[in-house]
Amino acid sequence: MSTETEFVITRVFDAPRELVFKVWTEAAHMERWWGPKGLALSVAKLEFRPGGMFHYIMRTPDGHEMWGRFVFREIAAPERIVFVNSFSDAEGGITAPPFEDPWPSEILNTVTLAEEADGRTMLTLVSAPVNATDEEVRVFKEGFASMDEGYGGTFDQLAAYLAQV
Predict the structure, then answer these.
(1) Which fold is adopted by the domain 3-164?
(2) What's the pTM?
(3) How many whole angstroms separate alpha carbon 133 and alpha carbon 81?
(4) Activator of Hsp90 ATPase homologue 1/2-like C-terminal domain location, by residue (predicted)?
(5) What is the pLDDT of residues 26-64, one digit of tens each?
């Protein structure tokens, strides 16, 4: 995958790397910060190991539900997590995204955590479509601004959560 099809976002958190890594590894933590602002998240399953799955449901205030999943490919504590993210059904199978545009069914994500001065952590997330059609790649690239806003909100929630734990 070329870098022109990769979405990249970086954020520095006022928390040590081990803590930032930990809140990606346990269901009770993920329920508190993962996902878009305003949605409630419940974890159906979290098997934090290569080949394991994080399966979750997000609910809007008006009751709309969307399932999602990660399948972990690589875990190198505490600096790297690689997973494929997809929309899913209640059983954990991959489903089509809940929007009209042809969005890729699978997105490869690499989260890298780097120690900064004064106990801070720089998180870099790199995302790219997997097994996508040219049209899906085009739509993915056109979605960078929306993804920047969405991950920005998710990472705002992560920052607030890290300040509490």
Answers:
(1) Alpha-D-Glucose-1,6-Bisphosphate; Chain A, domain 4 (3.30.530)
(2) 0.94
(3) 25
(4) 14-162
(5) 999 999 999 999 999 999 999 999 999 999 999 999 999
